[in-house]
C-alpha cells in the first residue's frame, strides 16, 4: 500500500503460538516493523520484535474478551 506521505508499506502476518495470526506492517523498505496499538503505531527495528509484541497484545486482548464473557455469564 501507499501511505498519505507517499511512502510504501507491506502487511505481513505473524503466526502466534496457539492463537490466530496477527498483522505486522513493514515500512521504509523493511527498516521499521510496526503494529497497530489502540489506533497508534508502535514500531520496532526488527520483524521478530514487532511480531512478539503483536502476539503479546493479542494474548491480552483475548484474555480480556474471555473475562468479559465470564462476567456476562455470571
Strand arrangement, largest sheet? Answer: 1-2-3-4
- Using the alpha-carbon principal axes, give the shape: elongated
Mean pLDDT: 80
Compute the number of strand runs: 4
Spans of at least 5 consecutive residues whose pLDDT stays below 50 are 64-74
**Which series of helices and strands comes N to C?**
EEEEH
Biggest sheet architecture = 4 strands, antiparallel
Q: Counting H and I runs of at least 4 residues, what is the number of helices?
A: 1
Radius of gyration: 15 Å
Termini, distance in Å? 45 Å
Report the structural category.
alpha+beta
Oligomer: single chain
Q: Percent of residues in helical segments?
A: 25-40%
Content of β-strand: 25-35%
How does this model look, in words?
The structure is a single chain. The chain is α+β, with helices and mostly antiparallel strands and 74 residues long. Strand 3 (32-37) and strand 4 (40-44) form a beta hairpin. It is built from 1 helix and 4 strands. The radius of gyration is 15 Å and the shape is elongated. The chain has one helix spanning 47-73; strands at 9-14, 22-27, 32-37, 40-44. It has a 4-stranded antiparallel β-sheet, covered by helices on one side. The relative contact order is 0.16. The chain starts with 8 loop residues before the first strand and ends with a helix.
Layout: helices, strands, pairs:
Blueprint: E1 9-14, E2 22-27, E3 32-37, E4 40-44, H1 47-73
Antiparallel strand pairs: 1-2, 2-3, 3-4
Name its key features.
74 residues, alpha+beta, 36% helix, disordered C terminus
In short:
Helices cover 36% and strands 31% of the residues. It is built from one helix and four strands.
